[in-house]
Amino acid sequence: MSAATETHGHAGHGHDAHHDEGFIKKYLWSTDHKMIGFQYLFTGILMAVIGGFTVYAFRMQQAFPGTHIPGFGRVTATDYNALVTTHGSVMVFWVAMPVLIAALGNYLIPLMIGCDDMVFPRLNRLSYQIFLLSSVVLVASFFVEGGAFGGAWTSYPPLSAKAEYSLTGTGSSLWLTAVALEFAAFLMGGINFVTTVMNSRAPGMRMFDVPMVVWMIVIASILFMASVGPLVAGAIMLLFDQQLGTGFFDPAKGGDPILWQHLFWFFGHPEVYVVLLPAMGIVAEIITVFSRKKLFGYKTVLYTAIGTGVLSFFVWAHHQFVAGIDPRMANVFSVTTLLISIPVAEMIFVYIGTLYGGSVKLNTPMLWALSFIAEFLLGGVTGIFLGASGADVYFHDTYFVVAHFHYTFFPIAFIGAFAAITYWFPKMFGREMNDTWGKVHFWGTIIPFNGIFIPLFLLGARGDHRRIYDYRHFPDLMKAGMQDLRVFATVCLLVLLAFQVVFLVNLFYSLVRGKKASANPWNANTLEWAAPSPPPHGNFPEGLPNCYRGPYEYSHPDRAEDFWPQHVKGA
Amino acid sequence: MMRPIATTRSATGIPTGKLAVWWLIASEIVIFGGVLGGYIMHRLGHPDWAHQAIHTNTWAGAFNTFVLLTSSLAAVLAHQAAEHGDGKKAAKMLYLTVVGGLVFLVVKSFEWSHEIHAGYTITSNTFWSFYYTAAGIHGIHVIVGMIIMLFIAADAAKGKELQRVENVGLYWHFVDIVWIFLFPLLYIAK
Fold this sequence. Notes:
By secondary structure, chain A is mainly alpha-helical. Helices cover 65% and strands 0% of the residues of chain A. Chain A is globular. Chain B has one domain: Four Helix Bundle (Hemerythrin (Met), subunit A) (Up-down Bundle). The mean pLDDT of chain B is 94. Chains A and B meet through helix 1, helix 7, helix 8 and helix 9 of A and helix 1 and helix 5 of B.
């Protein structure tokens, strides 16, 4: 279709949007990709509050065991298991996934590739509705008999398969159902993202003109689609074990509990990269804009991202070094695991190369982007200890693992999301967020974050086991200062949680009262900044843009302005 | 709802609907891959499952394989008719495909009720757990495919959305191919 007819067709579309839509049609039953993105975003923020509350309750139990915890009461052993499980599942499946992939993917993809919507808008709406249903099922599981599922977010059988072990029969089945529904939702979303980017790019946008964050979301969606299948199958089998009494994972009936670990981690490890890559993409967008430089090595980042994705399918058994795996096989997985740090390090080098010699502007989104690089690096480096099977035998199931995992996932799920929200907020809502309060929130998050997890590394190195409800029963783990470290980490957590209020107030205040934002407040190149802030239904009221160049043409020597938007024609 | 312009673009040259079906199939392959991979690993470790597998009805399975393959032929003919713009014939062929799926399910239900009466239920042994689970997931795919096909056939009969005939055909062939894997693994391997 030629650009002229597109413009014409679009004008009609834009006119359509002026009709007053009802509240339900506009906010709840919308097929507009931006509204669906917001639905995912705010559901994700709401779930993050649940995830934050659960960590508050169980960290308080660790620091002050057996006491009455304000806002929760006394934490029983069953509560403790449910809290830990809920924290893990919610933060991975109901915060990181919906915010980084679904919310940003939905919001950004059509805008950044210069078209008016996803290719399957109704499938998109259905995907959110199924996701919402999955959240409702998960929250409902808190209130059934026996309480929420308490078998850890990895849900290993036999603990998860038998109600007499986990003590949460109904809760386990509801948890599994919720996870399965969520996977169905993200499969629909993923197919939509990939086909949209493949087919509906602006005229003139070639493969290497696609902004990095879009590439990353597409690669992540493909990784998700290619890895989640075995876990879907495993979830059905586990549900049958729970409800029908089959024995897929029960050795007494001829099954094997290790099979679950294979099925789970075949998905579970690529899942890390499913959420990492979008965060990496967000960082690429932000550091190019705020150092006014071209991305140093666009193709390098792209190829290393693909390389990371491919390698991530061959590392899963590093979660099973103590599960009776053949040591020769463990060596193979040690090697693949250590190999994967090469492409990730490559990306970080590229980002540092982009910063080098740039005119760096340290505003809130940039601070988040830079801290992502620094903190994720620590997460990656500590992973080397765990990837080496010999060291892992010692560290396995200690707080060292917990700290390592959080040094990767917190930067991904929260630092990445804060970077994205503060960067795209003017586009999303047509108003600016307060930069000073943004910085207060930044320092109030980053400092206590390190304060929580550095002590956990130290505890883990001293053999602190991660699944203990009350350390007073384990004198070996109460030696010299260990409890003090736990208390210190918990106090830091309280500070971190308190500073999130600053963010929420800034977010909601700016939504209503923030300074009106212009269409392109950061002088950025990518196509979403060619649309008005906020973009109307149909995105580009003056006709869909064409694309003339790559996304990172900053400080071009032949131009007076230091940016060169993708949709601007000619030299 | 007005159709977004996004749906009319095709940078790859492949129609968007078809592209989506291919991605759907890609994600389904790994779902069945998980079940069958798990089954094969178990089967290799349990030669004794052969004593269970002899109780499956190989002839019924073979007949069902024949039925599904034939229904796939009808799906191809429907695609051919749709290519020529003959919506009525495409619809007729799609209905024939649905009949094939129906026969498959009827044979399957006779088989299952026979086996359950003989005492081989989903909880008898891990072989039977896999047998019912794998074939059950496949059966759900057959049913879903039939329902979608009925909708598409109704449209095609009016000459609308003919490109969808090929897309549902792709999905049906995939379901067919999954059965080609299930049949030897569950019935023939003794």
